[in-house]
Amino acid sequence: MDKSLRSVLEDSIRSIHNYPKEGIVFRDISTLLGHPRAFRRSVDELVHPFAGQRIDKVAGIEARGFILGGAVAHQLSSGFVPIRKKGKLPHDTVRIAYSLEYGIDEMEMHRDAIRPAEKVVLIDDLIATGGTAEAAVKLLQQIGADVVAACFVIDLPDLGGRKKIEALGVPVRTLIEFEGD
Ligand code: AMP
């Protein structure tokens, strides 16, 4: 990645200490989204590896993955599929439980959102422990999607999320790393 891209991303992401709780550094991309050049460069970089390929669907994880994923889908001329917290989608869904730091949560998508063997790129803003993205990949694979990549603006490499996704046979692409958690 060229230095100017790294610095435009680094400078546009706001770090909020001790949010949502003591000891966490929250990497806030709302400032990146509000910065025209940083937003465009992020989307361009996420799109780049797939330019010229047939990608049937981009799946975005609620909620920040919707904003980035929608823009990426538009650029790739793909459909967009929302992966949502349980109870938000109106039609027949498939659901998966996953572990959070405390307790478990569930995410779901419409059963008919993706046809078997369709090529899907998964998008979220950030990968930390990888638990959220792992569940999303499993959900997609469960309905027969060919998940060609999972892409994130930010990687927190110390938390090891990348390995969890690669273990499912899905390549991971990230644009910028922040050390620590
Ligand atoms: P994980 O399941 O641990 O990989 O967490 C990833 C999800 O939680 C993503 O949807 C992120 O938006 C959010 N997340 C986790 N850690 C952070 C952080 N330090 N700053 C901002 N968002 C985070």
CATH architecture of the domain at 53-177: 3-Layer(aba) Sandwich
Number of strands: 9
Spell out which ligands are present: adenosine monophosphate
Alpha-carbon Rg, integer: 16 Å
Q: How can the largest sheet be summarized?
A: 7 strands, mixed
| Spatial order of the strands forming the largest sheet | 5-6-4-3-7-8-9
Query: Structural class of the helices, strands and pairings?
Result: alpha/beta
Helix content: 25-40%
* CATH fold topology of the domain at 53-177: Rossmann fold
Sequence stretches where pLDDT stays below 50 over 5 or more residues? none
Name of the top-level CATH class of the domain at 53-177? Alpha Beta
Q: Give the SSE order as H and E letters.
A: HEEHHEHEEEEHEHE
- Give me the number of helical elements: 6
Strand content: 25-35%
What is the residue-mean pLDDT, rounded to a whole number?
96
Q: Distance N terminus to C terminus?
A: 22 Å
Outline, from the CA principal axes?
A: globular
